[in-house]
Amino acid sequence: MSAVSTACLGWKLSAPAPLRRRAGSVRAVSRVQVAARADAVIIDGKAIAETVREEVRVKVAAMKEATGGKVPGLAVVLVGARKDSETYVRSKKKACGEAGIESFGTDLPEDATEDEVLAVVAAYNADPAVHGILVQLPMPPHIDEERVLGAIDYEKDVDGFHPLNIGRLSQRGREPLFTPCTPRGCIELLERSGVAIAGKEAVVVGRSNVVGTPAALLLQRRDATVTIVHRYVLGLSKSWHTVCPYATD
């Protein structure tokens, strides 16, 4: 997992717990941590999240009225019975209900084959009532996550992990249909808090595919000068491990 730091402003950003995606990867962080500077300001991630959820609820209600009852549909695929993954899936379904989004779900046993998982993904790809597909990670080790994520229709890839979406994110002048949720949430927190990103020096601690790399790309697209710090950086001081002890990429 990664953290985003705009050190010149005294910010050290870790996504609040609702934005964490990959189950079991980090412990929950309830608020943005801030570097020890007198002018640092704590970002109220919970309040911003509530505002965003209400905005989504209003938009979904307006869509439903304008289309004669149609609403977005989100499908979640869970393989296995990890308690943390089950908790994440329940929270996603609860958030859908609160926002007026139709929720779909398929729970497969731990020993489900890769072909069985791919068949579920293919069915959701073909379902016109499903507009977004999430495959809960991690999956059991016998399943090729890259193959499963690549099988999701990129137009329904709400995690933003499909090669077409992440590829577009990496290129100037291209727009992905979706971006990974945790780094997108980090940027949303900064922008809604009035933090100007353009022209700033930003440090991303960690380079994971889920958070670190897309976070760096999102900051770069907003004209920040980005440095990525990871565990192989020579001479990395212990202070960086204090900034983000979970950055193991």
Molecular structure report:
By secondary structure, the chain is of the alpha/beta class. It folds into two domains: 3-49 and 179-243, Rossmann fold, CATH 3.40.50; 73-158, 3-Layer(aba) Sandwich (Rossmann fold), CATH 3.40.50. The chain has helices at residues 45-66, 83-99, 114-126, 145-151, 163-169, 181-192, 212-221, 238-243; strands spanning 3-6, 11-13, 73-79, 102-108, 132-135, 201-205, 225-229. Helix 6 (181-192) crosses helix 7. It is globular and about 45 Å long. The model is unreliable at 5-35 (pLDDT under 50).
- The string of secondary-structure elements, in order, is EEHEHEHEHHHEHEH
Query: What is the CATH class designation of the largest domain?
Result: Alpha Beta
Number of domains: 2
Helix content: 25-40%
- The second-level CATH architecture of the largest domain is 3-Layer(aba) Sandwich
Topology-level CATH name of the largest domain: Rossmann fold
Task: Write out key terms for the chains shown.
7 strands; 38% helix; three-stranded parallel β-sheet; 249 residues; Rossmann fold; 2 domains; alpha/beta; globular; 8 helices
What topology emerges from the helices and strands here?
Elements (H helix, E strand, L loop, with lengths): L2 E4 L4 E3 L31 H22 L6 E7 L3 H17 L2 E7 L5 H13 L5 E4 L9 H7 L11 H7 L11 H12 L8 E5 L6 H10 L3 E5 L8 H6 L6
